[in-house]
Design a protein that fits this description.
alpha/beta, 5-stranded parallel β-sheet, about 220 residues, globular, Rossmann fold, single chain, 3-stranded antiparallel β-sheet
Length: about 220
């Protein structure tokens, strides 16, 4: 199965991606992972991406799409994949469709985890992560046993600058501007499934699992 996982910052995509990985033998592919892999292997596209990343700029669509195409051609994607963080725009979605159709493949389902903005702001504003092992906690719903200390490795917990106040609201605004046309694009293809993410993570996954099981 070829799956795209979508949802705004704070919707719980990371948690759901972990659940999906444990349940289904398909690779979880995030844009960040692909960039880091291509850069570390010093592929031509990786070198090109590194120029933009080092300059603090967004990697252009054509480079991103090339890296995605190369990753999806690898053997572990033969029986499907879970894309996370790509596509982000309609242009990228159209390019992805072309890449897949050239190999007789297509996106089977796009899962969009929907959560109201006020809940997202509350979640993100309470989010902290370990400086060492990167485990994420939420001070309201999933606090560490000891304040400021990671349960996993004992590292210091910090809050990302983009998880604070006005920055959170702006991130959500930008996400919606970019993503609404993309949701419309996939809705027109009849592959979009909206999942209510304003519930506990296991209940959310039950709905996602039912959706994925219907593809078999």
């Amino acid at each position: 199965m070829n799956v795209v996982l979508m949802g705004p910052p704070g919707a719980g995509k990371g948690t759901q991606a972990e659940f999906i990985k444990k349940e289904y033998p398909i690779p979880h592919i995030s844009t960040g992972d692909m960039f880091r892999d291509a850069v570390s292997r010093e592929t031509e596209l990786g070198k090109e991406a590194k120029k933009y990343m080092d300059a603090g700029k967004l990697v252009p669509d054509e480079v991103t799409i090339g890296i995605v195409e190369a990753r999806l051609a690898e053997a572990d994607c033969k029986n499907g994949f879970l894309l996370d963080g790509f596509p982000r725009t309609t242009v990228q979605a159209e390019a992805l469709d072309k890449v897949l159709s050239s190999n007789g493949r297509k996106i089977d389902v796009v899962i969009n985890i929907a959560v109201p903005n006020d809940i997202l702001i509350r979640r993100l504003s309470g989010r902290v992560s370990c400086k060492e092992c990167k485990v994420v906690y939420n001070l309201q719903s999933n606090p560490p046993a000891k304040e400021g200390i990671c349960d996993n490795c004992g590292g210091q917990l910090i809050q990302r600058s983009d998880d604070q106040g006005k920055t959170v609201a702006k991130r959500l605004e930008v996400y919606l501007e970019q993503t609404n046309p993309l949701l419309a694009y996939y809705s027109q293809q009849n592959v979009l499934q909206e999942i209510d993410g304003n519930r506990d993570s296991k209940t959310v996954f039950t709905d996602i699992k039912n959706c994925l099981e219907s593809l078999k």
